Amino acid sequence: MTGYDVYQGSSLIGSTASTSYTVTSLTPSTTYSFSVRAKDAAGNVSSSSNTVSVTTLAGSTVSYCSASANNTADERIGNVKFGSINNTSTGTAGYENFTSVSTNVTRGTAYAISVTPVWTSTVYSEAYAVYIDYNGDGDFTDSGELAWSKTGSTTSPATGSITIPSTATIGSTRMRVMMQYSSVPSSSCGTYTYGQVEDYTLNIVSSGRNETGIKDLITDIKLYPNPVKDILYISNTKAEDYKIFDMGGKLINSGKLERGSVNVSNLIKGAYLIQIGETSKRFIKN
Predict the structure, then answer these.
(1) Which of 58, 92, 201, 262 shows a CA-CA span of 20 to 30 A to 275?
(2) For residues 236 and 219, is the Cβ–Cβ distance under 8 A?
(3) Alpha-carbon gap, residue 86 to 58, rounded angstroms
(4) Interstrand relation of 190-205 and 95-106 (parallel, antiparallel or unpaired)
(5) Whole-prediction pTM
(6) Alpha-carbon span 271 to 103, nearest angstrom
(7) In the chain, what is the straight-line distance between the N-terminal and C-terminal CA atoms, in Å?
(8) With b meaning 16 or more CB within 10 Å and e meaning fewer, what string describes 244-275?
């Protein structure tokens, strides 16, 4: 015997050579079923073990401080791009809650950030701050959690880069995008006069490197058909491993591509993210 394949429900989620295995990206207060199959060097696989059901702990509920601008009449945030987030907003409230809009991000990986301002008439100088709660403790005050800032200018869009720390806590967390007239917001909380604040959700996942430590070679992968009913095909990738997450960041399925395809017929209808190597793409299951 060389190890064990670990199944979450009917989905293979990983393998281990030891008698223990750590499962991540689970949702609090949720029941999961697990089973294992032993395998040997010749490729023989045993029948499934008994199934064990476990329920995750409730976990702690985090509550973030409020932040808002008092006046959006002259300028506000028009669009935010980060990972698979590409959100155009038209609301005029000083704070907008877009935590239902999310993207997977990989620890140790750099991502482009783009914020496009909207001016009612006069083009004003705008400054920006993006905060990310990397350790999931409900605030943005820890070292490095001011993830990106840009001093006042009329540049549109304002762009930069954010690298997710290798020490970031795996799971869902919050990203706060702030735009303020002239000067960079001095705090992640409270109110200021002109501009706007928007909150998003990030699903932080593990490194996505293969066992040799070399990054998978990924081009701009493409999914088809999308929406999909049974078989999802993936092109433009040299990676073999995949992971499927729901939009809340919970790992639903994982395994290896079979001739560039994944059978998703067992998924319920809805939106999902598939991670191939270090690239994530959104697809719809019909």
Answers:
(1) 58
(2) yes
(3) 32
(4) parallel
(5) 0.58
(6) 12
(7) 40
(8) bbbbebbbbbbbebeeeebebeebeeeebbbb
